[in-house]
Amino acid sequence: MLREFFKFELGIQLRQPLLWVCALIFGALAFGATTTDAIQIGGSIGNVNRNAPVVVAQLLGVFSLMSMFVVTIFIAGSVLRDGDVGISDMLFATPMKKHDYLVGRFLAGLLACMVIFAVIVAGMMLGP
Asked: What percent of the chain has pLDDT over 90?
């Protein structure tokens, strides 16, 4: 049952244009931050190379902090969708486990957010 909830929710998450727009914006910011001095994220770098481990860790930390607000959109949106449609009472009246339902939805939203983080890392790798 967990697998069905996961596959269904992941399909919905990957079809949302907001996911891809956020991924492209963050990927472009990561690309710009590692390419030029005009875009500075998390403070100045100085004379350190843009692909130095300290700079990469600093950029990933700042992007993680910025994307925490985006993560709540995808995780909370999946749970609130049932309440808006009015099907949540019917779902919890069926003989399914609430654990499978909530964990499946959460894991699908988490994997969708990992797509954004993967695009950020890809932008940072393409920059230098």
From this structure: 9
